């Protein structure tokens, strides 16, 4: 919907009348995103990005955020400042009208023409109205520019993220830091832009107002003005303290959000290992440190306000005492005009420290942002991004040496994170020529450089020496598939034009037909965050389909078959590699020698070098069967000989292999087909191993005919089968491979949104979190502080009128005592309030994290990580910092309004007649505003979550996005998300200004009525009383509209409390602990597992994925569970660990005769061990990843690493166990990560031990 702002007249723009229809609509219905106005063209994200690009000049590595922003918005920003002189002129006019009215009362004996009084009344009304117009337009323009700054910084960070060097992206940025950059740090810049006018212009305002004070009080004004000026450096110094405290807090905030992001990404690992409690304790310790600095920061902020509250009263006392000493008495007109001028000065001093403080925090945030934005791009000095010069060549590398492209960097905090090893070549002397249409296979041990070679081909490394030419465009399927939160179709298309016939061919070739048919919304089914509702094989095939559907002629596949069963691999080899990709160039890495049969060339990576292997299947088999650490000399000689002689006879090689290392095993398969259930019962009469098939896919006749080939297991295909009792083990399974999706095809739920007023239970929850007694004490200190201020003003009237006929010392002494009391109450309020709000914030954070991480796995499948992290970061930051400040301003201003109204009413009872209409108008506009602003704030929060999720997805899929050249599409997607969010943000600002102007008009009415009463009653009231009521009424002008707006903003910030409380009340897994008498300390002692009629569904409204599964695993047995991807293997493991537990789950699982339903969740998972299908490492040291809670010695850790053949890799590092594994284990290949997970399981020494495709990413030698 087009914004009426584009066609509104000037009076409507100045008074925000054009937004009235929207306010009316918001009071008729609950606003939806479709009701929001479109942004005007200049506010859109694409326009802001273009402005940023034009404004960036010189070397990007020397970029200055502030200078670039000044080039973008400097002119409109300082043009907006022209409203400040208008505001100052309006408030000074009010002071002189006040002086004239008090003078009129002082000269009551003289004849006063009525028109003179009416002129003053009309003038003060116009002055108050002009003050409101100037102030609100300044706010409006500043806030619009603030929104643009947020947009432009978000786009700049996104551009840099998509273009920065991969090595630096792994070292410099992680999920926590990225979220802090786009939320907290960007918000600091937004706050600074919105408030900096009050800082820099305050110098001029202080000088002007001080000059007017001296003009009014003459020499008496000098002491007060000098005192004010001398005190100005104090809040500035204190603001630098606030900045220091915030910098300390930000470090812990970064660490907390990063760790929370790691925990959410590895939630399955956390739950599988029963690590929820210890990790929450670790988060709690970080949070305590963060809150310590936040509390100090808040306390310092409130002490600055205390200082501000004390400076002006002390200055007034100095002026009045000096004047009384010089002149022998106080003049009412002089006293109250000076008091009004000091009120203006107080308002300036109110905002100036805030502006300075925001500016200081913004400087620190800008440093962090520009440190990130200065990082070199991955394409700088890049030599291998060239189209091949030969028509028949897709890839040509000659004597290539490659390293991670790490540029020079002057930022200390960047240098500290960059490993100088990144300069060293990771690939050496690479010679590779791939002709168009060829399929080239690359194999080798884990960590040998296979993935690095593919990354080099897409331009992620720097070619130090030699020549490298690569055909463009490129399609790339990474080793760990990148799946983003969208439909299956959009994940496959990835920006390509939809071609239905070819799309169907790709689905069939990638073996996705059956899977997509069983999704309730077919390929329109929404995939959850990181593909949480897909199996590993389904994610891999979608990634392959994306590469196949692209128009690229060069396809790079990084170990794409690791998570797939043999049947699927055979299908893909036939219909994808030799089918739909026929004629296109394919370079793939794999550990599957059968796939290498399809290749035209085969290369082996070893220690970063590349060597071509002969096209000889038996040689490839030999490579897999020879153990890397125990190669016999004869085997090595055979390999060397085979490499030199491609025509080495197959039969001779087979004989050698069989005689040296192959194992001949009798294997009997007893297959019983049940017509109804289509179950497979497989018995393996061998000594030490069993294979259970859990695949129950519906087979057509062709598939049944291929069954023998699927289970064509012989001694050369199995690297290990041990012995077992010479008896059969009957199994019964009915496992459905249906996927978890809702009926409408959307797996992730919509973000919860509460409508209407913020519920009383939300406020009650916040008060309870901070303790009721603390909040009662807070309210008491606010009331006492305001009471002291009201008494202070009244005592000045007593002093002016010399009611008690005492000497100067008496009045001055009482005046000083009241100032001291007000300051003491204000300081007490600052301490109690900062302590109470921090307690409330900490309690809510603890309850939220407990609620999230004790939730079932289904919660994480239905809520993408960006949504959850948004509440843990942005909403928590709002409760930590914004809510306390806003609520403090609200309470101070509303209590101040109440004090002013009470004083005016007590001194002039006629003012009571104006209160009913005044309060009615006040509540009318406040209710209309709140109904709209509350929903806009909720829409803002909901539309903000996808922005966070988009950044996280971009970080996770960086290589895929760049390989497919999808940067522009991702930018457009982000621009749309920002525009959608900004439409709610800017409307919220406009509606706030709509309310503010109308409240100012109501306040102008009060001031006008008060002035009229003074004119009418000038013969019946004392000059001091007239001065008091006029000063109090003028204070209403600022206090009223600001207080009511702060009340609405406080309610809006309580939507963050609302959103956090929604996560504190999540249904958790129960029970956490077991009854003491049920299990022993060393349970399970044997490891016998019995599955009895197990039925499992992922949700109560979904069909079962396991149907009455029954079998038994005897102690010390090693059971192999086979089946196609999506057939239910993982579901069986999830049931064993009780990661899926609802009323639709029936049957029993017994471990050593004890039903696991009776065992506490934590006790159960801590007594089992698992190597998960997805190897997750945390961005911590190797020690922490292996043994998070320091239960093992270094010797035990080293032995575990040796057992999985990883110690040789890290032993050369300095303090290898304390080396940081990096985000998601970036120091290790995927196979090595899986081995680290295996070492982790070995250290636990618990049985049963579960391996979920635990060697899927490793080679057969490993």
From TrEMBL:
Location in or out of the cell: Membrane
Regions that span the bilayer: 77-102, 114-134, 198-215, 221-242, 302-320, 326-345, 775-796, 808-827, 901-925
Keyword Cell membrane assigned: no
Gene Ontology cellular-component terms listed: membrane
Entry membrane topology: Multi-pass membrane protein
ABC transmembrane type-1 domain location: 88-361, 776-1052
Alphabetical list of InterPro entries matching this protein: AAA+_ATPase, ABC1_TM_dom, ABC1_TM_sf, ABC_transporter-like_ATP-bd, ABC_transporter_C-like, ABCC_6TM_D1, ABCC_6TM_D2, P-loop_NTPase
Keywords for this protein: ATP-binding, Chloroplast, Membrane, Nucleotide-binding, Plastid, Transmembrane, Transmembrane helix, Transport
Residues in ABC transporter domain copies: 409-632
Family membership: Belongs to the ABC transporter superfamily. ABCC family. Conjugate transporter (TC 3.A.1.208) subfamily.
PANTHER family xrefs: ATP-BINDING CASSETTE SUB-FAMILY C, ATP-BINDING CASSETTE TRANSPORTER SUBFAMILY C
Protein name: Uncharacterized protein
Species in which this protein is naturally found: Ceratopteris richardii (Triangle waterfern)
